[in-house]
Fold this protein.
Amino acid sequence: MNGSTIQFFSAAQRDKLRGFTVTGLLVIDEAAYIRDSIFHDMLSPWTDARKAVTLMISSPDFETGFFYEHYTLGLSGGYNIESFDFTDFDLSLIRSPEKLEEKRKTLPVQTFRAEYLGLFKKAESSVFGSFKHSILTHEAARPTALYLGLDFGTGSGKDHTVLTGLNQNREQCLFWRSNELAPGEQIDRICEIITEYKPVIRTLYVEQNSIGKIYLDMLRKKLGNLFSIITPFTTTHTSKRKIVESLQVAIQNNTIKLMNEREQISELSLYESKINKITQTVTYNAPEGGHDDTVMALMLANYAIIQKTNSTYRFNII
């Protein structure tokens, strides 16, 4: 009616976003998930010539990036920026107590706080928080079903190979760790353990990245028909986030019990998340110079029991 036009663009267009001019209003939806370089180099110049208004809308992500910076500047005042928080308004229709409780139990704490409480995540933080309540104070029940996770290490005094098992009650009942055996000796020992527990093993998840593929082939030849219990696991950015978040949820909801193994407790305590400021992606790892072999094996065992028992977990994978 008034000659105005509305145009839609995607941040995935990248360099094709250059050269536009906005005369009225620039709306950036899900701004927290758009890379800084796209905003500063391509989107921000759109409003310069005609001094157009920019409206940034997003559920919060990490305490970093242009969206967080503009939001905090708006709170401090004096920068011609205004900030508002959706939690200041009545959201009872979309955020009932029942729905909040459901999401709290099925999402990792940081994701729940961001998506449903409107709070920014810490850019660097311990992943599993306090897990004292998850440490076993009694001997784990004898397994009538066993779910295993295996993370191969290089050995020779470096990374450990770790085999972890959870029983039918999600109690950790098996923990084997070594970095002193030759590759063939490692395989022999793992096969001995698998053979010992064969009647109750439901599945064994094994990471097959890097050296894992070589060890997996050795394990296949050694186990023969028993190899059918094994599920190879390829670690990618998305798949790793799934197994990390599933263990986060299990620990925060107290649905997993862990053996009081010193190295495992240390690695869980130090395991951290970091945000890559360039790619805006989250990485999960041990701190520099540290190890995460016990954590990886535990995450695989936990994921194995979730997949095998069809447990219901929801993940907000972006």
